[in-house]
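re the bet — no i am not wrong, look at it urself. input seq straight from the record:
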Amino acid sequence: MIGGDSNTSAINSKRKSMLSVVCGEDPGLSVLQGLGVSLNLDENPPAYDTMYPGLMPHSTELLTLGVNQPTELSRDNVFRCTELSRDTVIQSTELNPWVTLNKATTEKYPNDLENKDTTKQEGRDQERNENRDEKTKKLEGKMNLSKISKGTRERLIVQATDLSLSARAALRDFCSNTTAHGFNHVTQEDLHVLLRLFWLVVTLVSLGILLSVTYQVTYAAFVSKRPHTEVTYRDQSRDGLPLPDMTICSLSRFWKSKLKEHGVGTSLASYLLVAVGGPEVISHTLRTDPRRIRMLRDDLNTYLKENNLTLSQMITMLSPTCEDVVLACFTDTQQLFRSQCCEKVFTSTITTMGLCYTTLNQEIKYTQNISGVIGGYRVIFSTNLHEYMEYDPNVVSTISLAEAGIQVSLSNFDLTSTVAANTHVIRIAPSTAASVALSVTKIDHTEKYLQDWPWASVLPTCVLESGYRALSEQQQAYTQNNLYFTLLYRHCLLEVAQCSAVAVRFTNDTTDECLPDQILYYLGDNKAVQQCLHHNLKMFDLKMRDSVIQMCYTTTITQQLSYTSLIMDTLRELQTLSSLTNVTFSMVNIYYSQLGYTEYYERYPTFSSWFSDLGGQMGLFLGASFITLVELLFTVCYVVRLVVYKGTRAVYLKAKCCFTRFRDTNPST
């Protein structure tokens, strides 16, 4: 309390007759001065209104009303004339920490409060009323205040004439009260200047590191999308491990006996291989001999027309059958010979190697339940060297066709037969056995194709094995692993030559088959197909990536090969299975050395993980949180609003001044 108890009671007895608060610019300050109380007002009071941008009531209003919570004030009280008691003044000084009463002054001159000249006070009150009326008239000139309530009218007047909180004060208040660490030390006035400078450096360094780390985290999450990989080993000893799909091709291409049976000469058979093998088997002589090309083309068209055959049918007719190639299939639980193995395990398909036999798209899948050679899958082949056709060196390149034996390709389920016949190839010579030890590595990309937004579907956009097998042939051909061959041998040929290669045709395909001369021209010397290929690969990679069916898993099969010679006498019982004499054999033994595989799980950054990482970095370097961001947002909004208002106000006043001068200098205008 100010002064003694006697002074207080004396003032309370005369407070109604001596004091009257008239609304004005600084009513609280005038009243205290009228009471003879010496005040020290802080020019920059705490910006309590920073978190809730708006206009803060004047500090003297807080004194006049004498309330504890500034946010509960009503601006209607600014212009309301009330009586102010000594108790109200004393309470106001206690409730507002930025007002300091000079107690020594009041104790030294206790009677000055009773002897103030009321006439001087009334003159100041009258001046304030005149200023208020003048401001009200200016505002009424801009808008009709008679249609709104008194409280709203008074609030609009205050908002139009007062912006007490400066941008500097707002920033100081944010630094002093923010939940982030470091900033309050910088603005602490009672702290030594060197310590404040030290905390400023520490805070700025932490803020710089935070911004750098935030950039790296954001770039990794939304631009490069670098995944974090988790490595696990999946033990399949209990359930077993499915064996990979197998595609078998005879390196003889066409059999000599069948060429003779159907009346096909060596040159025509060699020319027919061009339609299958493509540019790889074309000889340089044929490329530069258009006369020979026309002659072979006429011979082939005549043969197809006379025998009412298509190109695919002619290739199948001249190639060895599955029973001619496969003699037996063995697993740890069953044995299948020739026709049984071909009917249950393999199906025929035309690839770039000619007519091949594959387990792809077959319902029966074998699983190895015992690790090692004993639990593997064994296939015995017939390699009849005397059935190998002779090649015309003027038509095909004999170097690329010089090998003899059986080609075995091991692949995952998500490859077409043509692609499988050109990847993971094992070529087994006659009278040779090949042992293939397998190990499998899987990469799980499922999280890459998940939508991380809360309202998005929980299902990935990629395809699992069951989904892949449910796709049509055309859809399977345009998956990621098959896209290149499909574009080269089908899509671009259809676009340029209006035909498709026999190696990539579908079941019940209605497109025309590309003849050998078309393959020779468009895939050999013509650049239109290559330009089409590069253009479409680029389009699929950049703009049509979502239209390409992506697999959730990438499976890599690692092969470890070893070769041994076959003892023919031990396979005499199999010679009775072949209808030919002087048969030579080849064998392949496929097995897993361990019943398990290594899985790499790719965890891709999502919005949730990015937000979590960002929050962790903010907490580490500044002790900040999400609330800090909200505080900063409110502060920035308030400062921007204040700057815009003051700038707009300055421009308006400048324009008004210029207009006034122009009007005064040109009265006629």
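see?? Confidence is low (pLDDT under 50) at residues 1-116, 160-164. told u. also Residues 384 and 580 are 8 Å apart (CA to CA). so pay up
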